[in-house]
Amino acid sequence: MDAFDYLGVLLSIILGLGMSQLLTAVGRIVRARDRVRVAFAPLAWAAILLLLYVQFWWSLFDLRERSAWTFLEFSAVLLQAALFYLLAALALPEDPVAEGGDLGQHYARQAPWFFGVLLAALAASLGRDLVLWGRLPDHANLAFHALMVAVGVIALASRRPLLHAVLAATTAAALLAYVGLLFWRLD
Questions:
Q1: What's the pLDDT tens digit per position in 31-62?
Q2: Cα–Cα dist 28/183, whole Å
Q3: pLDDT tier at 120 (50, 70, 90 boundaries)?
Q4: Could you tell me which residues come within 8 angstroms of residue 57 by beta carbon, excluding any fewer than 6 positions away?
Q5: How many helical (H) and strand (E) elements, i.e. helices and strands, does the chain have?
Q6: Angle (deg, nearest 10), helices 139-157 and 161-182
Q7: Is residue 155 within 8 Å of residue 27, measured between CB atoms?
Q8: Which of 121, 124, 112 is nearest to 155 (CA)?
Q9: Inter-axis angle of helices 40-59 and 3-31, to 10 degrees?
Q10: 94: helix, strand or coil
């Protein structure tokens, strides 16, 4: 077992816990569907997060040949994974019925924290590249980060449900394009 195999275990556990959190919440929503009022934005963000987790895990493959790690380098990667987990904890209610049964109200309550953590995760992603490689990511990757920062800032500035639904749909489309263009194959 090399260094990255060892370090990757903790990262995989955190990502797995985040995915489990989201999938469990969706399962609870489905089971309580007659007592839960659904809303597009929180469910869309849950789907976006699932794709982000897979993309993050997929992108970790680039680190497989890095044999020497410092605590700072690993912490930079770990911070991003931890922030992604926090997004899962905020995206959907743990017990939708006990929390009022309205996903839209839950989303409105959590949106400032959700988008604040999203912005922190984006900063951590850029910081990770600076710590690991000494530079920011390439132009296409940086453009996606800029788009996501814009989404986060707009979402923090507005409470309008329709705008949040449009932001979620736009982000989903952009993320699919991002993954398709930059991360389609493992190299």
A1: 999 999 999 999 999 999 999 999 999 888 88
A2: 32
A3: very high
A4: 11, 12, 15
A5: 6, 0
A6: 170
A7: no
A8: 112
A9: 160
A10: coil
